[in-house]
Design a protein that fits this description.
The complex is a heterodimer. Chain A is an alpha/beta fold. Chain A has 17 helices and 24 strands. Chain A folds into two domains: 235 residues, P-loop containing nucleotide triphosphate hydrolases (Rossmann fold, 3-Layer(aba) Sandwich), CATH 3.40.50; 165 residues, 3-Layer(aba) Sandwich (Rossmann fold). Chain A has a six-stranded mixed β-sheet, sandwiched between helices. A six-stranded mixed β-sheet of chain A has the order 18-21-22-15-23-24, sandwiched between helices. A four-stranded antiparallel β-sheet of chain A has the order 2-1-4-5, with helices on one face. In chain A, helix 14 runs parallel beside helix 15. The longest helix of chain A is centred in the middle third of the chain and has 16 residues. The radius of gyration of chain A is 24 Å and the shape is globular. Chain B has a domain of 242 residues. Chain B has 14 helices and no strands. In chain B, helix 5 packs antiparallel against helix 6, helix 6 packs antiparallel against helix 7 and helix 8 crosses helix 9. The longest helix of chain B has 33 residues. Chain B is globular. At the A-B interface, helix 1, helix 10, helix 11 and strand 20 of A face helix 1, helix 9, helix 10 and helix 14 of B.
């Protein structure tokens, strides 16, 4: 049987770093092939090589048996490849159809034929069972639908081989399942799917074949049915990882933070939080789950002092916070791991020690009399690099040169090393490999057992299930339910996330 | 369907890692200057002159003798101070392009104190410089307030305030404080308000040392102090600074006021040290040159000393160039235009490279 894709001996170096080491990798036509590995294992580079975004130093690529030189994405598209990136590249102000035909507009008499574009979009979406409204603006769509538009873009360009980079990172369990159904349909129609993922349960569920990468090299390619999750984890990291519920002591702490009837508007002025009440006690982890865009972002921003509530109040240790400002919250005892580490969590162009300093630049012993004591800051940073196992040459290493997982460890190290009674932890392990994930989970549990009050916001339900003492589900700006992580299931949570009895609003 | 450049890693991104950042930047500035020289040479060829002859004359005019070197330093002095003013804003992530206007207001305020009051030597010059500082700060106060309070784009508001400053000082000079019988200039200032000269050969004065001290001071402030750390964090990632508890609005106001204050001082030094009166159009383009010097130095105050000296030498050398060759002084303007183009192109390239690096680093 011929391979739809066959990569042989691919090596790609970036300076001293070898991203791909003699990788040989074959994908049969009509299969769903999962590409798994830790952060920095070389998955994305390999796919960028395949898609012509990066030129390999060595190695050959064959598409349907023909050796090709993949010198540009244009060539890849011409050969029937399509790539759905992790970060969507859609124009929010344009409609679905306009986005799909961007750059290949259907023209009649020198003008764009919008009607024909919409019609064609409808046709493709019906053919593959990807329901969208061609005339809706992308800015009005949910993330799951945006992803469908991305997939439609690829299909409209005639792709027979579809590459998806971490497609489920932003989806709810229901949306993910819907995506898997679509992918299966592609495979049944003879198309080939390559699927990059961190989530092993998904890989087991959806793929036919798995290729595991570690340190830029292929560990093995195996049929999925011959594998189980434990084996997969061992192949990825060379050891077992425990995703089970963390053991814990019973709690009876006092209330540390309390939100009373908080309402807040989002960036567009739409009411995004409606009468949110919640408390977090000392020694307790409260988990918040919900479909993206149901108020979690605004909730985190209000608590961090980055967004002023339009109504309601926040009290820390019984004292009401008068002014909504990050410094006021930090002085009241907040440590905060923000959801988007690159945008907010780090100064990527600065060193690790300069990043560790943020929030401490006025505090003893790192500063005194208005001057920064860089010697102490660096020493402190060295200690944190060791304690949090940050993989970097030294404390002067620029944060932008670190992998995503290590960048996140810098953020976690900075915030968790503060002696604060309250932690707001937002997506602590998004895009982070299993080793770093475990490390971060350990630190969260340690903080809990030391008596910190922790609010954990995460799109990863298994993470919240493993860590939280109580789980609050958000829907449409409200807390729509509370569940006991010891007794609940992913399905029960998923149902609450979709609004329970109410109709999910995500449908196009 | 996809933007390839968004995902394509810069192949040399890691290779240059071994090189210190300042060295990498220096190469960039050298390229900018190199391209400008080539562009200038083409223009000179077009007017039928030999570029080599023109450049040699330019060099001789700038550094041919002690007097000429002093002349270059004299021209560089206000550019250094104006450049530091621009750096203050740049490093906080803001763009004060109104240094020219602050310089005019500062220059006028200093002259006014100089000719209106009789004060003891020493004190007089200090009061006059303080007046320049206050005038510069006041002149940026409105744009600064609007930027901090309403997010009004400070680039536009500070540019516009330049014209107002030039015209107001011109009005005050011609219609209110004109020296009887003189040209469009004010009364001379009292000798007690003179900035001390360094030597008798030229009008080079201690303003040069003030500029260098300010540059070093700003460098130390940014790298060593808590407040300076907060300011540079704002400049590199304002969301990160906000998240870390830095008061963004208050800092925007303070940074712009300080930038304007230094801009005002640049004008004060020029009137108190060189002209000893205020003249209409007394400092053509020093403020703008300062902004360009700061951009070319990529916001580094130490770098500004170098780039300002370069521009000062160009100005001084162009005098001899105009006398001895057929090339006019405008060649220098063409030069600077090329530098601006190169510098802004580099900013774009650097931005793009940084962002792709970030994205690529997200994971391999």
């Amino acid at each position: 049987m011929t391979f739809a894709i066959e990569m042989t001996g691919v090596t790609k170096r970036f300076g001293a770093v070898v991203a791909n080491r003699n990788v040989s990798f074959g994908v049969r036509q009509g299969e769903i092939h999962a590409l798994v590995g830790e952060n920095g294992a070389g998955k994305t580079t390999l796919m960028n090589v395949l898609f012509g975004l990066v030129q390999p130093d060595e190695g050959t690529i064959r598409i349907n048996g023909q050796t090709v030189v993949m010198d540009s994405p244009r060539r890849a598209i011409a050969l029937g490849l399509g790539m759905v990136h992790q970060h969507f590249k859609l124009v929010p102000s344009l409609t679905v159809a306009e986005n799909i035909f961007l750059g290949m507009e259907i023209v009649r008499g020198g003008l764009i034929d919008r009607k024909a574009q919409s019609e064609k979009t409808r046709q493709i979406s019906a053919e593959f069972g990807l329901k969208v409204d061609p005339d809706r603006r992308v800015s009005e769509l949910s993330v799951g639908i945006e992803q469908r538009v991305e997939i439609l873009k690829v299909l409209a360009r005639g792709a027979k081989i579809v590459i998806l980079d971490e497609p489920t990172a932003v989806l709810t369990p229901q949306e993910s399942r819907e995506l898997f159904r679509i992918l299966r349909r592609f495979a049944d129609a003879g198309m080939t799917v390559i699927f990059i993922s961190h989530h092993l349960s998904e890989v087991m569920e959806v793929s036919d074949t798995v290729t595991v990468l570690r340190d830029g090299a292929v560990v093995g390619t195996r049929p999925t049915r011959e594998l189980n999750e434990d084996e997969l984890v061992r192949m990825m990291v060379g050891r077992n990882v425990n995703f089970d519920r963390r053991p814990r002591k019973a709690i009876s702490g006092r209330t540390v933070i309390e939100l009373k009837e908080i309402c807040a508007r989002d960036a567009r002025g739409v009411l995004a939080l409606r009468d949110v009440n919640l408390t977090v006690r000392s020694g307790e982890i409260v988990g918040i789950v919900g479909v993206d865009g149901n108020g979690q972002t605004e909730l985190a921003e209000v608590i961090a002092g980055l967004r002023a509530p339009s109504h309601g109040e926040i009290a820390v240790n019984g004292i009401t916070i008068a002014e909504s400002h990050p410094r006021a919250m930090r002085e009241a005892g907040l440590a905060h791991v923000p959801a988007d580490r690159l945008a907010r969590g780090v100064d990527a162009s600065a060193s690790i020690s300069a990043n560790i300093l943020m929030g401490r630049q006025y505090a003893q012993p790192w500063a005194g009399r208005g001057l920064i004591r860089w010697g102490r800051v660096r020493e402190f940073a060295r200690g944190l690099i060791k304690r949090f196992d940050i993989r970097a040459r030294n404390e002067k290493t620029l944060v932008k040169t670190l992998s995503g997982g290590n960048m996140q460890k810098v953020v976690v190290a900075r915030e968790f090393s503060r002696e604060t009674p309250f932690l707001l932890v937002d997506q602590p392990t998004r895009g982070v490999d299993i080793g770093a994930m475990e490390r971060i989970h350990d630190e969260i549990m340690l903080k809990r057992d030391q008596g910190a009050a922790i609010l954990l916001i995460s799109v990863q339900i298994d993470e919240v299930l493993a860590l939280a003492d109580r789980i609050l589900v958000m829907f449409a700006g409200r807390i729509s339910g509370e569940v006991d992580p010891e007794k609940t299931t992913e399905d029960e949570i998923g149902l609450l996330m979709a609004g329970g009895a109410e109709r999910p609003r995500a449908a196009a | 369907m996809t933007l390839p450049s968004d995902n394509k890693p810069a192949p040399d991104a890691l290779k240059t890692q071994g090189m210190p950042q300042w060295a990498e930047q220096l190469i960039g500035q050298a390229i900018a200057v190199g391209i400008s020289i080539i562009g200038g040479a083409v223009i000179i060829l077009l007017v039928g002159e030999s570029p080599l002859h023109v450049f040699a004359t330019l060099l001789r005019g700038a550094f041919g003798s002690w007097e000429r070197t002093a002349g270059s330093l004299l021209q560089a002095t206000p550019i250094i101070i104006a450049g530091v003013a621009a750096c203050v804003a740049l490093r906080g992530g803001l763009f004060n392009i109104g240094v020219e206007g602050q310089l005019y207001m500062g220059g006028f305020a200093a002259a006014w104190v100089g000719f209106s009051f009789a004060l003891p030597a020493g004190l007089h010059v200090l009061v006059a410089m303080a007046a320049a500082i206050v005038a510069g700060a006041l002149w940026i106060a409105l744009p600064a307030f609007f930027r901090a309070r309403f997010g009004t784009n400070e680039v536009v508001s500070t540019i516009l305030s330049n014209y107002v400053a030039v015209l107001i000082t011109s009005y005050l000079t011609i219609s209110v404080f004109k020296r009887p019988g003189g040209w469009s200039e004010t009364e001379p200032i009292a000798p007690t308000a003179y900035l001390p000269q360094i030597s008798d050969v030229s009008r080079l004065n201690i303003g040069l040392f003030i500029g260098i001290a300010l540059a070093i001071g700003l460098h130390l402030f940014l790298t060593r102090t808590s407040a300076g750390y907060s300011v540079s964090a704002m400049g590199t990632n304002v969301k990160f600074a906000e998240y870390g508890g830095v008061s963004i609005r208050r800092n925007i106001l303070v940074i712009l006021l300080c930038s304007g204050a230094v801009g005002g001082l640049a004008g004060g030094v020029e009137t108190l040290g060189v002209h000893h009166r205020f003249m209409e159009g007394f400092a053509p383009g020093f403020g703008f040159d300062g902004v360009i010097a700061a951009l070319l130095a990529n916001g580094s105050p130490i770098g500004v000393i170098g780039t300002a000296l370069f521009f000062g030498a160009l100005r001084a050398g162009s005098l001899l160039m105009e006398v001895e060759t057929n090339a006019s002084r405008e060649v220098i303007t063409v030069f600077q235009a090329f530098i601006i183009l190169c510098v802004s192109a580099q900013i774009l390239i650097r931005r793009r490279r940084d962002s792709t690096q970030g994205e690529r680093r997200w994971k391999f």
